[in-house]
Automatic annotation (TrEMBL):
Lineage: superkingdom: Bacteria
List of residues binding Mg(2+) 2: D58, D87
Gene3D superfamilies per record: PurM-like C-terminal domain, PurM-like, N-terminal domain
The protein's name in its UniProt record: Thiamine-monophosphate kinase
The organism of origin for this protein: Flavobacterium plantiphilum
Lineage, top ranks: Bacteria, Pseudomonadati, Bacteroidota, Flavobacteriia, Flavobacteriales
Function: Catalyzes the ATP-dependent phosphorylation of thiamine-monophosphate (TMP) to form thiamine-pyrophosphate (TPP), the active form of vitamin B1.
Record-listed E.C. numbers: 2.7.4.16
Domain PurM-like N-terminal: start-end pairs: 40-152
Pathway recorded for this protein: Cofactor biosynthesis; thiamine diphosphate biosynthesis; thiamine diphosphate from thiamine phosphate: step 1/1
Catalytic reaction annotation: thiamine phosphate + ATP = thiamine diphosphate + ADP
UniProt-annotated binding residues for Mg(2+) 5: D241
Family as reported in the entry's similarity comment: Belongs to the thiamine-monophosphate kinase family.
Record: residues binding Mg(2+) 1: T57, D58, D135
Residues bound to substrate: H65, E291, W343
């Protein structure tokens, strides 16, 4: 489905390990004051002065986390950075540096790795993170990419998963479910392509969904938005596995329950249309879909006036005592227990 626009194939064996590293990393710039030494020595050197340092790692394996049949390498590089930066945003911190480690089989020519690093560079510039190191090695089969991200925050700014209180409001940024439906569209087109390689997909009706799947963004703006509103969340998490599963994480770690309201879920019109086309229940996808990289957080009910009507945020529920459990309150006003990845949770009771 993705055409090979770059017919030139330079074998990476030709360059050797050091030549390859130099080639891939020569364009990275340093912008953060905390980066004293980036790529080029045995280790990078950082100085965060009086800030706290937050750090997170994610690994992505070909065939498990991505499929190169419809994921262009440039997008993969971009997304790998974004998913890491999103974890730092979810701590209410600012991402500052990343390291990038890759294992590649000789099936990948130099041009493929250049594309991957173009995506990494784009994201590094967009999120102003310095690439300060990494590792490059070979794999027997396929591509593995592991990114570690560092970020900074004042000690009193950091928000954990375990601070939610009963009566807190539950808030989500942006809209949810679109990335999952984007994946469904891409999977369908891949199957069509396998049957008829000459078919050219018409993806116009799905642009937003596909963009949410192939080029997600981390909500680095939320830290600033909340700061301006003088709101500090009591707990926060990013939506990588799906709303339902993230709510359960917040509840378990904070020892509270939750009522999530079906009619409050923020859904994009294109998402609703495509759910209809695929004959899938939009609520089921919205709460179980995943990969939205929006932020989910709780705030004291006293902050309601500061956030109500703000287009960046939707109040989708409230926390309760732990003993009340974790529920979705449907439009028909019935309560369904929320389950992580509970694809059957809705259909069972409908
Ligand atoms: P070492 O032998 O100490 O592991 P390497 O030769 O692997 O060093 O790497 C040389 C430099 O290039 C180091 O600064 C390392 O962090 C950096 N580097 C290696 N691979 C990558 C990569 N994929 N992305 C970014 N930096 C890398
Ligand atoms: Mg090394």
């Amino acid at each position: 489905m993705i055409e090979d626009k770059n017919p030139q194939r330079t074998s990476i064996a030709q360059l050797g390990e050091f030549g390859l590293i130099d080639h891939l990393t020569k364009n990275f710039e340093i912008n953060q004051a905390s980066t004293l030494k980036g790529i080029g020595d045995d280790a990078a050197v950082l100085d965060f002065k009086d800030k706290k340092v937050v750090i997170s790692t994610d690994i992505m394996v070909e065939g498990v986390h991505f499929d190169l049949a419809y994921m262009p390498l440039k997008h993969l590089g971009y997304k790998a950075v974004v998913t890491n930066v999103s974890d730092i945003c979810a701590m209410n911190a600012k991402a500052t540096q990343i390291t990038v480690s890759i294992a590649v089989s000789n099936r990948f020519p130099l041009e493929a790795l250049e594309e991957l690093f173009q995506g990494i560079t784009l994201a590094a510039n967009e999120y102003k993170v310095d690439v300060i190191g990494g590792d490059t090695t070979s794999s027997q089969k396929g591509l593995i990419i592991s990114i570690t991200v560092l970020g900074e925050a004042d000690a009193d700014e950091i928000v954990y998963r375990n601070g939610a209180k009963a009566t807190n409001l539950l808030v989500v940024t942006g809209d949810i479910g679109a990335a999952y439906m984007g994946l469904q569209v891409l999977e369908r087109e891949k199957q069509v392509f396998q049957v008829n390689p000459n078919s050219q997909p018409d993806l116009e009706l799905y642009t937003y969904l596909i963009e949410r799947q192939l080029k997600p963004e981390a909500r680095k703006d939320v830290r600033t938005l909340l700061h301006a509103l003088e709101i500090k969340p009591t707990s926060m998490i990013d939506i990588s596995d799906g709303l339902s599963s993230e709510i359960i994480h917040l509840c378990k770690q904070s020892k509270v329950g939750c009522n999530l309201y079906e009619d409050k879920l923020p859904l994009d019109p294109q998402f609703i249309n495509v759910c209809e086309e695929f004959d899938i229940d939009s609520t089921t996808v919205a709460i179980n879909g995943g990969e939205d990289y929006e932020l989910l957080f709780t705030i004291p009910i006293e902050d309601f006036d500061k956030i109500k009507g703000n287009p960046n945020f939707s109040i989708i529920g409230h926390m309760t005592e732990e003993s009340e459990g974790i529920h979705l309150v449907t439009r028909a006003n019935t309560k369904i227990p929320l389950k992580a990845r509970g694809w059957n949770a809705l259909s069972e009771s409908e």
